[in-house]
From TrEMBL:
Presence of the UniProt keyword Ubl conjugation in the record: no
Domain Ferrous iron transporter FeoA-like: 1-72
Gene3D superfamilies: 2.30.30.90
Organism: Albibacterium profundi
Keywords assigned by UniProt, alphabetized: Iron
Transmembrane is among the record's keywords: no
Protein's name in the database: Ferrous iron transport protein A
Length: 74
């Protein structure tokens, strides 16, 4: 499952980030493998999205979110 596939209120756990340059940026912001994420908001036109990760809210474009692979949150 990709982060971009979540609906508001759904959770997942980061498994991997498929884009190397993006992965460095996101890991510096707390998006590490094994970290739980929660989709909090989606902009009216669908882009960007707001997720809660590492205790804060982070906004990502759908194109960036589609490169974040998740596993189901237990």
């Amino acid at each position: 499952m990709k982060l971009s596939d979540l609906k508001i209120g759904e959770r997942g756990i980061i498994k991997e980030i498929t884009d190397l340059s993006l992965s460095i940026k996101l890991m510096e912001m707390g998006c590490l493998p094994g970290e739980p994420v929660l989709l909090e908001r989606i902009a009216p036109l669908g882009d960007p999205i707001a997720i809660k990760v590492s205790g804060y809210q982070l906004s990502l474009r759908k194109s960036e979110a589609s490169k974040v692979i998740l596993v189901a949150h237990p």
